[in-house]
Design a protein that fits this description.
Blueprint lengths: L1 H13 L6 H18 L10 H13 L9 E5 L7 H7 L4 E6 L2 H13 L5 E5 L2 H4 L9 E7 L4 H8 L3 E11 L4 H13 L2 E11 L2 E10 L13 H4 L4
Helix pairs in contact: 1-2, 1-3, 3-4, 7-8
Length: 235
């Protein structure tokens, strides 16, 4: 137990992040709950403790300094990444975790309850539908997404949730240039502008960070109905 807690602390330190003892304990409890649930339902292909720490926890919290504002939506959160780790390292955030798979939402809410996080909730819904609900549309300072769909489809899901002046933060693999080039016009149509693209190394794994600033309101027709953003991406 102490070995894995030390590992969490040391991996964070390698990425210039200092975790408190409480935060380390929360990550440890989160990891154990993930491993336990993963034996019953398929939450992640990554099952070894240290791999979970590196490829899920660290990959989530390396973007913590990009989170400016209080209301955060994690789109396609899956097993809670990056939303739950970001909440652990910044308790002031108000986080909504969104996923279309109910079993994953049940896991996230179980984890939230077990590790006693406040002002964070997991919702079972499709982005195409929820983004047209006035309670959620253009209400967030930050929308984050990690390894969900291609950029052209992804921005149609993300940008409608953002306030004007808010930012999309997309975590992707190393080969993102062509994908981003294809998405440029869609980003413009949806009211956004590429603000930053950064590539970095995470324990030997190449990663990309894309930040998109929302400059104007998104037209009410977006996102289009279920299936359209995937089958007919904006050109």
């Amino acid at each position: 137990m102490e070995d894995i807690k030390d590992f969490i602390k040391n991996e964070a330190s390698k990425n210039n992040i200092n975790l408190s003892e409480k935060e380390i304990e929360l990550f440890y409890l989160y990891m154990n709950n993930l491993i336990e649930w993963n034996q019953k339902i398929n939450l992640t292909a990554i099952k070894e403790e240290k791999e979970i720490v590196i490829k899920h926890f660290m990959d989530s919290i390396v973007i913590k300094d990009e989170i400016v504002g209080s209301r955060v939506l994690d789109l396609g959160s899956g097993a809670g990444f990056p939303g739950i780790p970001l909440k652990i390292v910044n308790d002031k955030l108000e986080v909504t975790l969104l996923d279309a798979v109910n079993k994953k939402v049940n896991f996230m809410n179980d984890t939230i309850e077990k590790i006693k996080l406040k002002n964070i909730v997991a919702i079972h819904a499709r982005a195409e539908e929820l983004a047209h609900d006035e309670k959620y549309r253009e209400k967030y300072d930050i929308v984050v997404s990690r390894a969900v769909s291609n950029m052209t489809t992804l921005v149609e899901y993300m940008l409608p949730f953002l306030k004007k002046g808010g930012k999309c933060i997309c975590l992707k693999g190393p080969d993102v240039d062509n994908e981003l080039e294809d998405a440029k016009n869609a980003i413009r149509i949806l009211g956004g502008k590429i603000e930053k693209k950064m590539q970095y190394d995470l324990n030997g794994n190449g990663r990309s960070l894309i930040v998109i600033l929302k400059e104007k309101h998104t037209e009410q027709i977006y996102p289009r109905k279920q299936g359209k953003p995937i089958k007919e991406p904006l050109k």
